[in-house]
Each structure stands twice: as C-alpha cells, then as structure tokens.
C-alpha cells in the first residue's frame, strides 16, 4: 500500500492510494477546522456546517437532489466533525469517480446556505443533542473531556449547545468558511480502484479554483496541563447502568512515544483477553464492556478506560482499574513476553483489518497529512509497534499514571459523589 502525495497548481494536497483489485473507491475532503477553533458564541458551527452542505448546493439545489443523485449509482455519502477537523466523503463504484467528484466538490465548495434550511436544521441538531444526552454510552466521552479539558475549547462538546445552535445565522457560516476553507487547510484523499493520473485530473477540474489563503492565520493550539490533584465529574442520571471513564493525560498527535502508548493501551484494555476485560468482566461479571483507548490532539492526548458497569458494583470496578494501572506502572504486575507479543499483534491485526476499507485508508493518511503534514504507512506503523519493549511500556506507564493527574467521569443514578472522591484519594 503506497499512498502518493501530489500538489495541484493552487497548492491543494491530493493523496492517492491505488488498490487495483478494488471495484470501489472513497473520496474524502478534509478541512483542518473543528469545534476547537470556534468562539464560544458559535460553539457547534463546524458540526452545523457538516449538516448544511447536505441541504443543497449550486448544481444540486436540494437535499433530495443530492441524495437522489448519489442513490442513483448506489453510493455512500456522509461527513464527520471532530475537535480539529471536518471531513466529507463519497464511496462509490470506481466507474462513477467523475460523478462522485462532481457532487462532493459542489457540496463542499458551493453550498447554498439557505436561511430557511438553516432554521429548519436547527431543530434537527437540537434533537441530536437530546439524543446524545439520552445515550450515556456516547455521552460519557463528552463528560470525560469536559472534565479533562475544562476551561479550554477542547473541553466543549463538538455538537455545541442548544443555545449556541439556535443563535446561529447565515453570516456565521459564510464568515467561518471564508476563514478556514482554503487550499493550505484542505487535503483530499482517494483510495480504491483508481489511477493517480485520473484522480489528479479530476481534482484539478473540480477543486482547481479553490482559493489558496484564508482570511486570517490559523490558531496555533497549546494546551497546558496544570492539574495537581485527582478530578471527578459526576453527571446524575437515573440509568439502569453506570457509565464511567477513568483516565490520564497522554502525548500529543505524532509524539515519539505513541507506539508505546498504543501497546500499553492494548495490554490494559485492548481486547477480550486484556487485563481489565479479564478482571472486570470475565472474573467478576461487573460489566459488559471494558475498553482502553488513546485519543490524541495536536498538543495533548488522553489515555482512558471506559466501562459500563452494574450500578451497585461501580466502586469495585474503579478499584480494579486503579489497581491495574498503578500495578503495571510500579512493576508489581509485570508484563510477560507473551503478553507483550499479543498486544503488538492485536494492534497490527486490527489496523490490517481496518485497512480493507478504502474509507479507513483515507482516515489513516488524511488526518496525519492534514494536521502534521506527514504520512505514516502501515509498514512504518508495524515497525514502530514491533520495536516497543517491556521496559518502555512500564516507563511510559509511570510517566502517565500519576495519581495527581487522575480523572474520573461518571454518568449514573448517584447523588453523593463523596464515595468516589475517597476512591481517588
């Protein structure tokens, strides 16, 4: 798998990954702006823009026109918004590449931003916010980051709030796009049964007129960790199950210890035979789901474990999580050669399976090039994982698992948080 990066005359970066045996291809347009770049009064605008481009564009003037055109060739059309990027993609038969480019380019570059559609979509997003509030397995991630990054834009929910969404106007969308949608802040990735020569011609045809510069310079983010004691955020909700995330700060996107962090994550909660899954679910039956993950941003990261547990067993689950984190860091619970190898193969295997999907190939190469101006190939990632030693894993665990920087977020039917505060101390 060899991604090839080329620049158009206007500076737009295009990454092509040819897969000759594939009958389909995915085109993804990446824009280097997300909720983190928003002012408080327009919180959620990046996500709102994601919605509005589907409501009509210059050549396809309605949501129906867009959806019917994509459905007519059996394509898949969607978009996503994060805290640092927004993307839009179409997945289709390779034979429909030209049409897919035409639709996607018109949506992203020429949205109508109809005021009536904006007003109508406000209600949709307000309902989406309500849905997340009623879905604790999703909402707990927001609650954890509200705690971890409080006081910073990173701590806000990507979707915004009902108040900010209701107060947005067409002028906000126009200004925001003028600032952030330009060639130096956009990457196009195409993976599947395509030829680079054709891809570059189509990219030039449909995106060659995109402006090179935005109205202002992009913000250089710098989150400073100043936590000096454990933190807890309890969201009281009458659920039949408690949801929690326990975690610490970690390294930023592209940091030199990223492969070590990944292996550490796999050892603790990376699969059904991981330490936390075994201790919490298999041995004690406290939870259905237990999973450890690392999330990274441009200047900071987070190392966290999620679990959905029995309401009356949450304290036991938290104690086990703390014991396993600190026990690994102290060397009390040593990592065996077999465990290390299993963790490495778990990571490599999951990446290999993911890369069978052209959309996931775009995700791997697109985010890295957009935010870091660097592409890591699967081969390089596998090599980085293979080099990790047990000693490095323990050293990084000691560095990350500092009790004073422990964070715990909970959604559940609890009114008194003192018992949880005692656990953290």
Structure description:
With 425 residues, this protein is of the alpha+beta class. The chain folds into two domains: 4-207, 2-Layer Sandwich (Cytochrome Bc1 Complex, Chain A, domain 1); 231-424, Metalloenzyme, LuxS/M16 peptidase-like (Cytochrome Bc1 Complex, Chain A, domain 1). Helix content is 44%, strand content 19%. The protein has helices at 45-52, 63-71, 97-109, 115-133, 136-148, 162-166, 170-180, 196-207, 258-269, 275-282, 314-330, 337-354, 358-372, 378-386, 390-400, 418-424; strands at 4-7, 13-18, 24-31, 76-81, 86-93, 186-192, 231-236, 242-250, 287-296, 301-309, 407-412. The strands form two sheets. A six-stranded mixed β-sheet has the order 1-2-6-3-5-4, with helices on both faces. It has a five-stranded mixed β-sheet with strand order 7-11-8-10-9, with helices on both faces. A hairpin with a 4-residue loop joins strand 4 (76-81) and strand 5. Helix 11 crosses helix 15.
Summed up, the domain count is 2
Reading the helices and strands in chain order gives: EEEHHEEHHHHHEHEEHHEEHHHHHEH
CATH class of the largest domain: Alpha Beta
CATH homology-level superfamily of the largest domain: Metalloenzyme, LuxS/M16 peptidase-like
Task: Give the amount of beta strand, in percent.
Answer: 15-25%
Mean pLDDT: 96
CATH topology of the largest domain: Cytochrome Bc1 Complex, Chain A, domain 1
Tell me the major beta sheet: 6 strands, mixed
Helix run count: 16
Kindly provide the radius of gyration, computed on alpha-carbon positions and rounded to a whole number of angstroms.
23 Å
Strand segment count:
11
């Amino acid at each position: 798998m060899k991604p090839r990066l080329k620049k158009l005359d206007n500076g737009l970066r295009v990454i092509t990954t040819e897969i000759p045996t594939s009958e389909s291809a995915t085109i993804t347009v990446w824009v280097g702006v997300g909720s983190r770049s928003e002012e408080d009064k327009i919180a959620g605008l990046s996500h709102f823009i994601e919605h509005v481009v589907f409501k009509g564009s210059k050549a396809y003037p309605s949501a129906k026109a867009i959806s019917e055109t994509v459905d007519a060739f059996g394509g898949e059309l969607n978009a996503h918004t994060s805290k640092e990027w927004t993307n839009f993609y179409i997945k289709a038969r390779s034979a429909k590449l030209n049409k897919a480019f035409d639709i996607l380019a018109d949506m992203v570059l020429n949205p109508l931003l109809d005021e009536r559609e904006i007003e109508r979509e406000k209600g949709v997003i307000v309902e989406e916010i309500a849905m997340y509030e009623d879905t604790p397995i999703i909402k707990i991630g927001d609650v954890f980051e509200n705690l971890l990054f409080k006081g910073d834009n990173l701590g806000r929910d990507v979707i915004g709030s009902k108040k900010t969404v209701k107060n947005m106007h067409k002028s906000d969308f126009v200004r925001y796009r003028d600032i952030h949608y330009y060639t130096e802040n956009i990457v196009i990735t195409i993976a599947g049964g395509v030829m680079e020569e054709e891809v570059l011609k189509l990219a030039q045809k449909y995106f060659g007129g995109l402006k090179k510069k935005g109205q202002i310079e992009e913000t250089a983010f710098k989150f400073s960790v100043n936590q000096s004691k454990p933190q807890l955020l309890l969201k009281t909700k009458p659920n039949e199950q408690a949801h929690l995330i326990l975690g610490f700060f970690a390294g930023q996107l592209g940091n030199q210890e990223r492969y070590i962090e990944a292996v550490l994550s796999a050892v603790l909660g990376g699969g059904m035979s991981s330490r936390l899954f075994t201790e919490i679910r298999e041995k004690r039956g406290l939870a259905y789901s237990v999973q450890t993950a690392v999330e990274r941003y441009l200047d900071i990261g987070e190392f966290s474990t999620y679990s959905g547990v029995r309401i009356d067993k949450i304290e036991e689950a938290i104690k086990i999580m703390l014991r396993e984190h600190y026990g690994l860091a102290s060397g009390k619970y040593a990592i065996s050669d077999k465990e290390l190898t299993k963790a490495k193969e778990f990571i490599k295997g999951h990446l290999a399976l993911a890369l069978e999907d052209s959309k996931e190939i775009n995700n791997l190469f697109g985010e890295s090039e957009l935010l870091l101006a660097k592409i890591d190939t699967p081969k390089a990632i596998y090599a980085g994982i293979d080099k990790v030693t047990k000693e490095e894993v323990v050293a990084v665990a000691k560095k990350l698992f500092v009790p004073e920087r422990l964070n715990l977020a909970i959604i559940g039917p609890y009114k008194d948080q003192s018992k949880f505060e005692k656990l953290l101390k």
